[in-house]
Every structure is written in structure tokens, then in C-alpha cells.
């Protein structure tokens, strides 16, 4: 392991106890937190702006298909990394309280601060260029679960079933909290597999940079999404009421 030249800078990794909560409230609480990945002398960082909760007792979750060695992280204590391949790319999740429950880290937004400077952003662009090889715009670097992992060089083979580590990969609370949160159904859930459950959560201020915009002229508040404060979002997450539409 290479020495961390930024070890003297304040880092605030989330404690293991943070993840020991219901996956639905964890999905809300993870919004605004920062993923930090140490790579080749640089800290690569992205703020979490979109999450999805998955529960053992609903049909949209991987764990509902049963325990396997590849899915073992979902059945461990909260805060263990669960990774899988989606559309040919890596996807990052973390386990929550209760066997089989977890949160998908679906989108992020690059962070430039005292720990991750312009060189870190440049490295993320090198890791995740456009198809023609040109530099991907910063706001599109982490706009999806596989793009997020590619930009931070987080891979299934390296990180599945591993714990977070303050020296190499962790999630940090830097004090930011979304002022409003969008609650909406998850993306890509097949019909008949609890696709209506409203377990997708997005930082409203950064919604334009998530996987798929949850707001738009054809979408109606109350029918397609709810716009909530963080406290309201946590309550609504546990209620899990599908939308009337």
C-alpha cells in the first residue's frame, strides 16, 4: 500500500454504526455523503446524489433470489461493500441492518476540495473518458452506477464483500446535507418485481446529474415523485407507499 500524503488532512469516515439502520433510511442518509477512493497518490472523490434501497422481503432485490457467495455481502453486517456487474460495468452497494438489505449507490458528482484537487478530477476523466477518448464533462463523470465506479476505479474483483477502509476507500460526512430530496420508484425493475416501490432517492439540487432526471414537464408531483425535506423523506421511505398513478 502506498503512503497517503494527505494523511494530515481531516477525514471523517462514517462509523460502522451509521450503516446499521434500515436500508430505506440509509438510502436517504447517504445522500450528500462523499465517497473517497485513494488511487496512485490521489484521492478521487464524488458526492452521492442518488441512491436506491433494496430489501430482502421484496422481489426487486438481489437478496430475494437467495444467498450465494457472490451476494454474501448483503447478508453481512451493515457497511460491507456489495458489488456486481450491470450492463458490463461495476456497480457499488453497501449492506444495511438486517440480512439481505442494502443500498445501491446510483450516481455521484465530483468533489474538488482540499483532499481532492484538480489533479484528482483529471484522473477521474482519464479513467472514464467519452467513447471517442475525449474528456468526459465533470458533471457526467458519475451520472450512473457504472460511471461512478469507473470514475473512481472501484471494481467487483477488488471490493466485493470488503469493509470500507479509511486508507483506501471510505464514505465521508463533510457536513453537506440536501435541502430537498426527491422520492420516486427505482429504475430498471422488471414488471411484477415490486417495481412501484418508491425506494429511489435523489438530491433535488443535483437531480439534473443523476442517472435519469426524475423531474420534467411530463412528470407530476404526487403522481410520479414526492419532493420532501430530509426528515420527511426518511419517514416516507419507511412507509413505502407507492404512488397513486
Describe the 3D structure:
The chain is 16% helix and 23% strand. The chain has 245 residues and is an alpha+beta fold. Strands 1, 2, 3, 4, 5, 6, 7, 8 and 9 form a 9-stranded antiparallel β-sheet that branches. Strand 3 and strand 4 form a beta hairpin. The chain is globular and about 50 Å long.
Observed structural traits:
nine-stranded antiparallel beta sheet, alpha+beta, 5 helices, 16% helix, 245 residues, globular
Give the number of DSSP strands: 9
Derived structural class: alpha+beta
- Beta percentage is 15-25%
Please compute the radius of gyration using only Cα atoms.
Answer: 17 Å
Total of DSSP H or I helical runs spanning 4+ residues: 5
First-residue to last-residue Cα separation: 52 Å
Share of helix among residues? 10-25%
| Secondary-structure element series | HEEEEEHHHEEEEH
Mass-distribution shape: globular
Low-pLDDT residue spans: none
Mean pLDDT: 93
Query: How many strands, what sense, and barrel or not for the largest sheet?
Result: 9 strands, antiparallel
Amino acid at each position: 500500500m502506498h503512503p497517503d500524503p494527505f494523511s494530515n488532512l481531516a477525514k471523517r469516515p462514517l462509523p460502522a454504526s451509521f450503516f446499521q439502520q434500515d436500508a430505506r433510511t440509509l438510502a436517504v442518509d447517504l445522500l450528500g455523503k462523499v465517497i473517497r477512493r485513494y488511487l496512485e497518490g490521489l484521492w478521487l472523490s464524488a458526492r452521492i446524489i442518488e441512491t436506491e434501497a433494496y430489501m430482502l422481503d421484496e422481489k426487486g432485490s438481489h437478496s430475494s433470489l437467495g444467498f450465494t457467495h457472490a451476494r454474501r455481502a448483503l447478508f453481512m453486517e451493515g457497511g460491507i461493500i456489495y458489488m456486481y456487474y450491470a450492463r458490463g460495468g461495476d456497480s457499488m452497494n453497501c449492506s444495511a441492518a438486517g440480512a439481505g438489505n442494502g443500498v445501491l449507490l446510483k450516481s455521484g458528482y465530483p468533489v474538488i476540495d482540499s483532499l481532492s484537487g484538480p489533479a484528482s478530477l483529471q484522473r477521474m476523466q482519464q479513467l472514464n473518458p467519452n467513447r471517442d477518448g475525449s474528456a468526459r464533462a465533470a458533471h457526467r463523470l458519475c451520472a450512473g452506477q457504472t460511471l461512478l465506479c469507473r470514475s473512481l476505479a472501484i471494481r467487483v474483483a477488488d471490493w466485493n464483500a470488503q469493509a470500507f477502509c479509511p486508507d483506501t476507500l471510505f464514505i465521508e460526512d463533510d457536513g453537506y446535507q440536501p435541502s430537498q430530496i426527491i422520492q420516486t420508484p427505482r429504475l430498471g425493475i422488471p414488471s411484477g418485481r415490486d417495481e412501484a416501490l418508491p425506494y429511489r432517492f435523489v438530491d433535488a439540487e443535483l437531480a439534473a446529474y443523476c442517472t435519469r432526471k426524475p423531474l420534467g414537464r411530463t412528470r407530476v408531483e404526487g403522481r410520479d415523485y414526492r419532493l420532501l425535506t430530509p426528515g420527511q423523506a426518511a419517514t416516507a421511505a419507511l412507509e413505502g407507499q407507492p404512488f397513486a398513478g
